[in-house]
Design a protein that fits this description.
The model has no long low-confidence stretch (mean pLDDT about 95). A seven-stranded parallel β-sheet has the order 3-2-1-4-5-6-7, with helices on both faces. By secondary structure, it is an alpha/beta fold. Helix 1 crosses helix 8, helix 3 runs parallel beside helix 4 and helix 4 runs parallel beside helix 6. Helices cover about 45% and strands about 15% of the residues. The chain has a single domain, classed as 3-Layer(aba) Sandwich (Rossmann fold). It binds NADPH dihydro-nicotinamide-adenine-dinucleotide phosphate (NDP).
C-alpha cells in the first residue's frame, strides 16, 4: 500500500472531513492519529477504525493550546518515533455580520482555524526537519479566496492559512518537506448541515457541477498531496469546489 509505515496526524478527525481524510489515509496503509477536543469521540472513532482492520490511535488535543499540542506530539513520537504527514483540518465557524460580530467570536475562529495551524505545524515541523522529510496539508476554504457575507472572521482565518503555508513552503523547501493547502467549497458535513433550504438552493445555483461536495472529494486531494506523486508540488492551494469559484 502507498502509505505503509507512515504516521499521519489529522487534527479534528472525529467527524466530517477530518474523519474521511483519516479513513482515506488508513485505507492507504498509514497509521492514523485521530484527534479532537472530545476525548470520548476520539476514542470511539479510533475503535471504529480498529474494528475495520485499519491502523489508528487517538489523542485528545485542543489545537489552540500549544502545551496540549506539544504533549500530544511528544506522546506520538515516544510511541511511533516519527510523524510523516500532518493534516491541519480542525476548524469552526462563528458567522455574523461584522458590526454584530463579537470580539470573542473573532478571536475564537482565528485561534482555532489559524492559531491551530501555527501550533501544530510549528511543533510537528521539528521532528520532520530532523527526519528531512514530511508533508503538511492544511484545510483552508474557498471562502478564504472569495470572502463571504457574515464570514469575515472565517475568511480571514482561511486566507491566513494560505499565506502562512506559502511562507513555510519557502522556508523549508530545501529540507525535503512540502506544504500545501486544500480549499474546499461547500461540503456536506455538520458544519454545513445548519443551512436552510433557501440558502442551499442559492448555493447550488452557483455550483457548475450542481452538487455539494462530499468529504471524500476533499480526502482524495489530501491523499494525493501527501503522496510521492506530489513530491514536486509545494506552496500550492488546490480548490475543490465543483467549479463554484471559476
Ligand atoms: P466539523 O464541524 O464536522 O468537524 C470539525 C472537527 O474539528 C471536529 O472533529 C472537531 O472536534 C474538531 N475541532 C474543532 N475545534 C477544535 C480544536 N480547538 N482543537 C481540535 N479539534 C477541534 O467540520 P468540517 O468537517 O465541516 O470541517 C473540517 C475543516 O474543513 C474545517 O477546517 C473547515 O473550516 C473546513 N471546510 C469545511 C467546509 C464545509 O463545507 N464543511 C468547506 C471548506 C472548508 P471537537 O469538536 O471534538 O474538537
Amino acid at each position: 500500500m502507498q502509505l505503509k509505515d507512515q504516521v499521519v496526524v489529522v487534527t479534528g478527525s472525529t467527524r466530517g472531513i477530518g474523519k474521511e481524510i483519516a479513513i482515506a489515509f488508513a485505507q492507504a496503509g498509514a497509521t492514523v492519529i485521530i484527534s479532537g477536543r472530545n476525548e470520548q469521540m476520539a476514542a470511539e472513532t479510533k475503535k471504529e477504525f480498529v474494528q475495520k482492520g485499519l491502523k489508528a490511535d487517538h489523542f485528545a488535543c485542543d489545537v489552540t493550546n500549544l502545551k496540549n499540542v506539544e504533549e500530544m506530539v511528544n506522546k506520538i513520537l515516544d510511541k511511533y518515533k516519527c510523524i510523516d504527514i500532518l493534516i491541519n483540518n480542525a476548524g469552526i465557524t462563528k458567522d455574523n455580520l461584522l458590526l454584530r460580530m463579537d470580539e470573542a467570536d473573532w478571536d475564537e475562529v482565528l485561534n482555532i482555524n489559524l492559531g491551530g495551524v501555527f501550533n501544530c505545524t510549528k511543533v510537528i515541523l521539528r521532528s520532520m526537519l530532523k527526519a528531512k522529510k514530511g508533508k503538511i496539508v492544511s484545510i483552508s476554504s474557498i471562502i478564504g479566496l472569495t470572502g463571504n457575507v457574515g464570514q469575515a472572521n472565517y475568511a480571514a482565518s482561511k486566507a491566513g492559512i494560505i499565506g502562512f503555508s506559502k511562507s513555510i513552503a519557502r522556508e523549508i523547501a530545501s529540507r525535503g518537506i512540502t506544504v500545501n493547502v486544500v480549499a474546499p467549497g461547500y461540503i456536506q458535513t455538520d458544519m454545513t448541515a445548519q443551512l436552510n433550504d433557501k440558502t442551499r438552493d442559492e448555493i447550488l445555483n452557483h455550483i457548475p457541477l450542481k452538487r455539494f461536495g462530499s468529504p471524500s472529494d476533499v480526502a482524495g486531494v489530501c491523499l494525493f498531496l501527501a503522496s510521492k506523486e506530489a513530491d514536486y508540488i509545494t506552496g500550492q492551494t488546490i480548490i475543490v469546489d465543483g467549479g463554484m469559484a471559476i
